Amino acid sequence: MGELPHALRGAVGHAYILEGGLPDRLAVGRIFAKGLNCLQGDACGECLSCRVFESGNHPDIFFVNGTKATGIGVDDVRDQIVLPMMTQPFKYKHKIFIVDKAETLTPAAQNALLKTIEEPAPYGVFLFLAAHTHNLLPTLLSRCVLVKLGEKLPKPDQDLQALAEEIASTIAGMDIFETMALYRRIEPYKESRESAKQLLDMIYLSYAKRITGAAAVGDSPHKLWFDSIAAIRHAKQVLTQNGNFQLAMELMLLKLNGKVK
Ligand SMILES: [Zn+2]
After folding, report:
1. What is the pLDDT of residues 236-258, one digit of tens each?
2. Which of 55, 181, 231, 252 is least enclosed, having the fewest CB within 10 Å?
3. End-to-end alpha-carbon separation of the chain, Å?
4. Residue 3 pLDDT level (bands cut at 50, 70, 90)
């Protein structure tokens, strides 16, 4: 049974790494932040929060900048994230820190962030935007939901691809019985973990594409899509570690349709 706590761990909903090129990662980061604080919840563009954000003066959404040529350092992190995070939002629901070029965070700066990410204020959200994650410490990566934007699989298996698309497009709003019926469609891959992992990669990409696509036309990507990505990665991790297939997949499906947080 030792698996359940592990399966439940890791679905952090307040720290994200958006990995990808420009302008995608910035577009996704901006509209995600805007949507989180929007008074209508969907980056409407018309409420007070959206309007002050567009004017560049949002009191609770911060763009963190490195002040040194060497990258984003400890001082930057302390002054622009750790200290401001200690006080309540000025007016809106979340206090959001957008860190572009997160790959330039020095190791010391990343270490200085760990505690704030691990024990976040209830209103705190981190969006790390990075061209790549090679320089990010495993301790930081493991505390964030990694969303790879614009990634493609080399040669997708058509059956798996069709099942992945079906899962991603129908899961929202399913009741528990339909969800379990969907699990039975995945079950045949139980004995073929590589196919199962490929299926998870495809579902993942389908959500990533949806996020980038929404941002590209100015719509707010749903937070559930980001959290779904976390759930998918987690299921993959359980499979990689030879954990319980059924438990991992069922839990993931329940998370994808928002039944389980
Ligand atoms: Zn709005």
Report:
1. 999 999 999 999 999 999 999 88
2. 55
3. 21
4. very low
| CB within 8 Å of 173: residues ≥ 6 apart | 257
What is the C-alpha to C-alpha distance for residues 197 and 201, in angstroms, rounded to an integer?
6
For residues 33 and 142, give the distance between their C-alpha atoms in angstroms, rounded to a whole number.
21
Q: What's the CATH number for 153-256?
A: 1.20.120
Which two three-digit tokens encode residue 91?
């007016």
CA of 189 to the centre of ligand 1 (A): 43
Distance 59 CA to ligand 1 centre (A): 14
The residue extents of the domains of the chain are: 5-148, 153-256
In this prediction, residue 2 has a pLDDT band, given cuts at 50, 70 and 90, of very low
Say how many Å lie between the CA of residue 236 and the centre of ligand 1: 35
Distance CA 105, CA 83 (A): 17
**177 confidence band (pLDDT: 50, 70, 90):** very high
Can the peptide bond before residue 23 be classed as cis, meaning omega within 30 degrees of 0?
yes
If you measure from the C-alpha of residue 231 to the centroid of ligand 1, how many angstroms do you get, rounded to a whole number? 27
C-alpha distances in Å from residue 174, one per residue of 167, 171, 188, 259: 10, 6, 21, 9
| Alpha carbon of 199 to ligand 1 centroid (Å) | 35
Pick the CATH number of 5-148 from 3.40.50.1000, 2.60.40.420, 3.40.50.300, 3.30.200.20: 3.40.50.300
For 99-152, the pLDDT digits (tens) are: 999 999 999 999 999 999 998 899 999 999 999 999 999 999 999 999 999 888
